[in-house]
């Protein structure tokens, strides 16, 4: 039982962080960013390169991941998404752009970082073992704490800073925000950069535990979509809840259903579909996003 | 007939001539026999994409077509291998079964809109793949292989369809079959869109509330359209199973569902023939870039990004200028 | 004579909030009845329930002896009770003419399959729809904008288009949601004339929800007044103008909402 | 208008470059060998290790003057097609190979792709060397597929038997990704273990390939306290994480897999926790690697920056194709001749010390010789590199 809870918290916190960036971008620009997973992977590879290869301190490497992704996100928004949104008759067309960017980033990752699974030295050694009832390596505990701290910092940023307020206004109602004097173009870019940065940050954090390889991008995006849907699209608290719920669903599902083996995930997905069919706006979302 | 203008009719005639005579001639001249399979794939994927386009037409982003293609492929394979049906009977059966599944699943999920519908259909693709892995009738992870080629069909001794197994060159036979199916699909689609059902769909796409206020039974039409869409998916999938002579849970997966959707976007959502062109460009484009080796993906994605950056309403919007016809 | 439409003890609750409480009134054939009241009085909710866009919590709506509440909107529309919308709810990328043609689909004689194959009946229908659309648009004075894309229309024409779409379904009862909102005096008077001719020349019973008092007084045969979800008065325009409760309700709310 | 002209210009430029890329080659006649497999996306490492080992070997041959078959010396050109792990693309790839006039193709890397290309390969006279295990590919009436490595149902029993005898292993647990290939391999492994008299204590726990935390996945497996944990069909990306989680959960027994792994990946991903991990490799350990193998590794590293141990097993397919063609030059265009030669073909194994030979096997598994005889080298990971545990032979 303790183990399930601990696994749930650990998974939930990292999932929530992945979902946060995605939902932020969705809330601001109504873009379902298919390339989110690839951004996460790039974040992982940047930290790998700095920390794992060049021996830069871990925290500094993390910062480099954040900076790289923020710049990448800002460029992508400025030169690709913004003009496409302006010129498109239906805003769903951005899905094609997002998918194109996902393919592109995959290709870039392959060329720059290669096809192999990469990992970095452990940041902390040792395993916390409470009577074999609760086993959790220290590095996971540390990453979990860091993830939670980042989430708290992000919420703080959104609640108490001028940027955060502007972003929230933008997410609520684009036109109204514009009327209130928010520089919509500028904050869209900042928001996108922030979302991409979050992806990079999680990538950098998790590379210490799971390592990173170019194949993780697509599946990560899809998982993030699910979390966002569970919580409600475009809602910050929804993304956090969605992450935590999916984390616990996996932890509990795997613990209870393991004897059914192959169908554990089938059941998770089916229950997700049933949940969405009954409550299409997710836990916290406004109907129809 | 059907109220076509002479310009449209000649366009259709040229198109038919091109795919049934022009392409084989060109392939014969250049010796690029491999293009038969590529073009067959394009035709079949275009059929499935037509279904996705149709759900777009009622304002739903469908990322679940891979699921129905997989269902179609399995139904046909099981009917042929385990029940011993002729492939030609299993083909419509596969489409119908996919449509039936679509009705059952559509009832609860078609109420959803926007990204919510998109996501639930994406999850559906995963569910069907995992179901195929878990079920005994689909042979689980081992898939169904060694599916026989389509057998001949004759009525009163007059051969209607030839026996593929006895053929020297099944490529051409599959190419013609796929093209005929594609033409039927798009003719159907064209008629559908330009008939009353199409107008009702368009009214729903633009405003479901207003549509129901003028007496449109929106839930019924949603189901009908989703069923037709999935029928196309099932047909495309079944045909593919027959060409590959094997079906695996991974024959159609999330990536395929996403690709079907992208085909529609790329071609242009406002144009009936958009998905056909989108499929051709996306699928054939990959093949053409084969020469670039490890830069294939890089160039492919760059071109894709450039297209959407400069033609955000799809390739066909070049002809009609910005804003298109809808 | 039995009334054409009866609202019987209709109540609507959203969670703990009561939007409409025990409202009853009748609508006679061929009359123009307005529902008025300050903001948040529950007028729109009432309309939604009559057109079955939302179910009632209690009570029912009877039309020609049949219950029409708690059904599906399209079924109610098929029976002849059709609503228009408060906002600019239109088919954005259709032309005016197309919109009116689509809205006639209930009158179709051919089946969907018949349309697909292009049967005789369907071709007949298509011709009839086009002709009727032309007539209707001329009647509404919209002939010259008939091939205009709806999203390009000015606000006044949009409202007229909403009514055109509603009328094209051949309704017995037309529910107009704020047809005069945002119009200047001249536009409003044109619209009043239009609504009246809809009733007079097409025999359509009209119910409308409105803020614009002068227009309402001008157009209505009878008026129902709601306040905080309750019906507080019902009667002819002159009766309503002199009703204590109504005056109080309106004075108690924000002045500019009276629209005078 | 301008836009259209621009696009036309771009297209022309692109096709010109493409033409040049294909026409620039040396004086010797060129022998094209194909590769159809996955070199992008999640499973890229499988195909890339294949493709690169082929390209390394081809470049080496060409640099040293070419490869002599019959009276002609050929330059070897590798034509690769990325099937994106999609069976539909794999068919297109095989068609492309037929188009290029290629009769010998390495790949595809997965079950569904290998099954899907069969009709094309057989009708176009292409011999192909998949890295996929379904027996139906190699048993009659299938004729053109040659298993390019040791199948798990062959290596599994050897490993289990060794562990039973040497380490006293009595109970075994299996864990596999929820995908066709790993699940099939797991089923094969379970059958083999049962046949050997091992007690299978857990065989139905699966994980999604995109799992980032294996602790919840492994917890129930660990509760069954197996002596041996088999990671069926594990991808090199997942292996270190699984090992790490299992060890962190306190698992003391042996962990093994029947697929090839990369020591660098294990070092980075699991460090010392991977010590004792048993996998199947080629002949690259110092005691077995011939000078030629070492040179191959050197050249590979020089060409691509980094070696991948998965290539130890993947170096063979090309060698087999070329050696067999050398033994019967008529097979260059005649696949039937190739198949006939396969029954009797034998040549020394250049990559391994000792008197190992290249020959075709598979009689006991498939009833016909449709498998390359790669030495079944079972490795154990220790402190950053593989050591040979034992070497066995497949018939």
Jot down its keywords:
B: 326 residues; mainly alpha; D: 395 residues; alpha/beta; Rossmann fold; 2 domains; five-stranded mixed beta sheet; 14 helices; globular
The helix-strand sequence of chain C is EEEHEEHEHHHHEHEHEEHH
How many whole angstroms does the radius of gyration of chain B measure?
A: 20 Å
Structural class of chain B: mainly alpha
Q: In angstroms, what is the radius of gyration of chain C?
A: 19 Å
Portion of residues within helices of chain C: 25-40%
Main sheet specs of chain B: 2 strands, antiparallel
As residue ranges, the low-confidence spans of chain B are 321-326
Instruction: Report the principal-axis shape of chain B.
Output: globular
Structural class of chain C: alpha/beta
Span from first to last CA of chain B?
26 Å
- Treating each run of at least 4 consecutive H or I residues as one helix, how many helices of chain C? 10
**Overall shape of chain C:** globular
| Number of helical elements of chain B | 13
Number of strands of chain C: 10
Number of strands of chain B: 2
Mean model confidence by pLDDT of chain C: 86
Mean pLDDT of chain B: 88
Greatest contact between two chains: A-B, 48 and 49 residues
Q: Strand percentage of chain C, roughly?
A: 15-25%
Order the strands across the largest sheet of chain C as they lie in space.
6-7-8-3-9-10
Describe what this molecule looks like in 3D.
The complex is a heterotetramer of chains A (289), B (326), C (260) and D (395). With 289 residues, chain A is mainly alpha-helical. Chain A has one domain (2-214). Chain A is built from eleven helices and two strands, in the order H-H-H-H-E-E-H-H-H-H-H-H-H. In chain A, helix 2 (36-53) packs across helix 9 (217-231), helix 3 packs antiparallel against helix 8 (184-206) and helix 5 (138-160) crosses helix 6. Chain C has helices spanning 43-50, 73-79, 96-103, 112-117, 120-139, 155-168, 185-202, 213-219, 237-241, 244-252, and strands spanning 5-14, 17-27, 32-36, 58-63, 66-67, 81-83, 173-177, 205-209, 222-227, 230-235. Chain C is globular, with a radius of gyration of 19 Å. Chain D contains 14 helices and 15 strands.
